[in-house]
Each structure stands twice: as structure tokens, then as C-alpha cells.
Here is the input.
Amino acid sequence: MGSLETSGRPLLNRRLAGLGTTIFAEMSALATATGAINLGQGFPDTDGPEAVREAAVRAIREGHGNQYPPGPGIPELRAAIADHQRHRYGLELDPDTDVLVTAGATEAIAASMLALLEPGDEVIAFEPFYDSYAACIAMAGATRVPLTLRAPTFRPDLDELRGKITDRTRLLLLNTPHNPTGMVLTPDELAAIAALAVEHDLLVVTDEVYEHLVYEGAHHPIAALPGMRERTVSISSAGKTFSLTGWKVGWAMGDAPLVAAVRTAKQFLTYVSSGPFQYAVAEALRLPDAYFAGLRADLRRKRDLLADGLRAAGFEVYPPDGTYFITTDIAPFGEKDAYAFCRALPARCGVVAVPNSVFYDDPEAGRTQVRFAFCKRDDVLAEAADRLRGLG
Ligand SMILES: *Cc1c(COP(=O)(O)O)cnc(C)c1O
Here is the structure.
């Protein structure tokens, strides 16, 4: 290990200080080290459709995408993304100017923050945050302003949102369905948020990677609402929708000037990525509706399986309307600190989970919340529930 300082200055710059290692890496390493069941990180333990995986193999064999693909993404994938948005939501996108393929949603989020923010701008985002939001806002030199989602429903308080808007507010960073709470914004909430964005002339970046994983109600893109198209960057990804989180194919969508801005940052982050996978994802997006309905039904059943197991084990369970995750409260066990609980959990009963407390700026708000992922095989969920019953 080298010195942590040089010329009397810390190596890690001030913007990134305190960001540390992501909680997912820390808890997944703990799962590997202890052999515990990993319900921490949100990745499925069954790979996505065979036809889609075969399409990637075929693309590599046939020489599609083995060399740098075009900067905005291959035309086949951009067309498939535009068709998906029209088919699902009635949104019209020009695949040549309104769609940008990225290295997962993660890069789309980073490029959006780097492109759209000036140092000193304020970004309002729901807390608990998906952890890359805080880092990307920090890298852009901007300031995050949390809007706290509170148990048991985790619905945003829209009067509180209005109160957080200042003349420095530049952007609302939305996430629906929301990780980690599973909250899904309703049409009324989306309309109210859109009205605030229009009234205050704000940009909106919306992370919709769980758009197909909604178990109650439906997903509605805010970009479809009046006045929103010209101010909204919508982000999604193949990872969650096709159970292929390692492929890292994501996309940003919006009016041409917004996408051009995001592309300016993206081209100097990765330039391009995932060549052959882009061909396969173009095919995946054209899977029949039955695939998407099947995925949703399957995960809804897993949600219910794990929720029942967690309740039986003594957790307070906040059933999610979407995503891969169930947020619980550990107060019924007399526990006071989710982080300490999660560090001890593998030794206590052979299960790994993630403390939601690390996703809040307000240390009190999520102090006793623990998140479990249910995107796992049924037998794994049943075994985890069995083990957790030993906590008592
Ligand atoms: C998983 C996840 C991402 C990252 O998506 P990638 O396509 O893997 O980069 C972004 N946002 C949320 C809310 C997520 O849960």
C-alpha cells in the first residue's frame, strides 16, 4: 500500500472523500468469505433467456460488435429501444437522435450528472438513494438534497418536495420503481412532480431500470406527461429486465439536445461498450409480451415467498410494489443498528442482507431497515427463510 497522502494532500479528492467501498461489494465479499446465502446484492441466480444468450454468442462468432460499435450504440438496438417505448408507453423517439446506448444504466446516470450539472447545482433525489447517485452528483460537484421516503409506505411527501426547491435546484433525480424500498410512483404523484418541474423549469433524470418489475399497479414513465419530454432524460437497462446484470447494456432517452449533452460526457467515459451484447439485447427487447408477463409473475411469486418467510422469522415487512427487494425493519428483534446487524448476520444464521441505513443522509430515517433481494431460486429463498427463523 502506498501513502494515502502526497504533498500533504489526500490522494482521494474532496468530491469523492467519504464514498468508500459500495455496500454491495462489502456485503457480497462477506457472503463469499462466509459461504452465506447472498440476499444482499440484487442479481438473479438464474441467467436470462437462452435465446438471448445464444444471440450474444452468435454475434461474437459472426463478427458483430467485436470491434468498436458506433458511439451512440448500434442502429439495431436503438431502433429496438424506440420500438419498445412506442409499444409499451406510446412514446415516440427518433432512434438516431433520441437514444443513447451506455455501459449499463450506471454510466447513463453518471454521464447525465456530468453533462447536465454545474458545480453548486442542487439535485433533489429520494432517499434512501441508490448508491451511485450520491457518487455521481458528487463527481459533478453538485449537492444532493434528499427527499426522505418514510416507512411504512415510502410514498414521497410532495409538499416537502416543493419546499426543497430553491433557485439553485437544477435537477430532480427520480427512481421508479424505487430501489431499495420497492415504491412505485402513481400517476397522480408523477403528475404532481411533473407540474413542479415545469413550474420551476427543472430537468428530470429518471432511473426506470425496474420498469418491467411492477407487481401492483403499473409503471408510468414521467416523460410521457405534458411538458416533460423536453426536460426529461429517461434511463433503463437490460440487466434487470432480462436477468443479465453482467452484460451492462443500458440506455438514455430523451429529446435530441438532452441526449446530445449526455452523449458528450458518455463518449469520454467509455466511448462505447458491450459490442456483441448490444446485438443480443436488440433481440431481447423484441421478445413477445409473454416473456415480460412471465418475468413479472415469477418475481411476484418470489416476493411473496420471501415476504412470508421474513414475517415468519419475526421481521416487520414492508411489501414492495416493484423491484427485486423487500425492505424490512429489525426493531421487533430489539435491534437498533442495521449495519451492525448485517455484518453479524452471516455468522448468526448464514444469510447476507444490506442495511438501508447506508442509503440515507438522515441517519435516523433508516437506522433499523434491512433490505433482502428475492431475485433468487425458490429453493434458495426457502433455505434463507429457514435459516432466518433461527434468529428469534
Ligand atoms: C441495478 C441498478 C442500476 C444499474 O443498472 P446497470 O444497467 O447494471 O448499470 C441503476 N439503478 C438502479 C436503481 C438499480 O437498481
